[in-house]
Design brief:
The chain has one domain: B-lactam Antibiotic, Isopenicillin N Synthase, Chain (Jelly Rolls). Helix 5 crosses helix 7. With about 270 residues, it is α/β, with parallel strands linked by helices. The strands form 3 sheets. The protein has a 4-stranded mixed beta sheet with strand order 2-3-9-8. The chain has a 3-stranded antiparallel beta sheet with strand order 4-5-7. It has a two-stranded parallel ribbon with strand order 1-6. InterPro entries: DIOX_N (IPR026992), IPNS-like_sf (IPR027443), Plant_2OG-oxidoreductases (IPR050295). GO terms for molecular function: metal ion binding; oxidoreductase activity. This is S-norcoclaurine synthase 1-like protein. Keywords: Iron, Metal-binding, Oxidoreductase.
């Protein structure tokens, strides 16, 4: 599917104020004063609000190879009408995924001073920091993020692309390109499911890809009262989620498709 390419990067995406570095806070409990933690603790939270259990019982697993097989295409494509948690046989080489994971781990293992070399600029979401923080009273996510424009290539601002680890940029280039291929394939079948001409849906979509990398450090003294990612709705038409697999190894690419309703994926 050919999509309409934007000549300029999207603007006015929300920006964010500078906030304390969560990874640094988690590394030094002496910094976790009552005043600091007040920004992160959500008193309204309880364990019943948290997603748990076997998500595979609620969200279908999509086999990309069956989508591409004429004999099984119709049956497998019907599952695209639902949110999906894990994609198998998605075509992205395991080596590409593992190298991306290793480079992300390497970046978040750098000293804070090196990570902040690619920090967000005032009013901009791209770079290292947090997202959509607009006031000193706002509750904060217990996470640090790195957001980068990756597609199309002329959207890339290499001032925000980490130079360390040395393989980070090449790894992200490969990962971004492979995930883009998967996205195009999925959109083709979504168009078929919706009964929309494939060329018509391409007119409605713009070719723009961002990659957001999240780091959720442990919170020893309030693990059940902080949130790594505030519940939200996205403007994306297609999202692929890759779990680094610290707790449970995630072999596939997770996708979330949102339209007023939300599907949870294993974090």
């Amino acid at each position: 599917m050919e999509t309409t390419e934007l000549k300029e990067r999207p603007r006015d995406l929300g920006g964010s104020m500078k906030t304390p570095n969560v990874q640094a806070l988690a590394a030094d409990e002496k910094k976790l004063t009552v005043e600091i933690m007040e920004r992160y603790i959500r008193p309204e939270m309880n364990s019943d609000d948290m997603f748990s259990g076997d998500s595979s019982k609620e969200i279908p697993v999509i086999d990309m190879s069956r989508l591409l097989d004429e004999m099984s295409r119709e049956e497998e494509a019907s599952k695209l009408k639902h949110a999906c948690e894990e994609w198998v046989n998605h075509g992205v080489a395991e080596k590409v995924i593992e190298e991306m994971k290793d480079n992300i781990k390497g970046f978040f293992s750098l000293p804070l001073e090196e990570r902040e070399e690619v920090a967000q600029l005032p009013g901009d979401l791209e770079g290292y920091g947090q997202a959509f923080v607009h006031s000193e009273e706002q509750k904060l996510d217990w996470a640090d993020i790195l957001v980068l424009f990756t597609q199309p290539p002329h959207f890339r601002n290499f001032k925000h692309w980490p130079a360390q680890p040395p393989t980070f940029r090449d790894s992200l280039e490969s990962y971004s390109s492979e995930v883009q291929k998967v996205a195009h394939c999925i959109l083709d079948f979504m168009a078929t499911n919706l009964g929309i001409n494939r060329e018509k849906i391409s007119e409605l979509l713009f070719e723009s890809q961002t990659v957001r990398m999240n780091y959720y450090p442990p919170c020893a003294n309030a693990h059940d009262k902080v949130v790594g990612l505030t519940p939200h709705s996205d403007a994306h038409d297609n999202k692929a989620i890759q779990d680094r697999g610290e707790i449970g190894e995630a072999k596939g690419l997770g996708g979330v498709y949102e339209d007023k309703k939300r599907a949870s994926t294993r974090s």
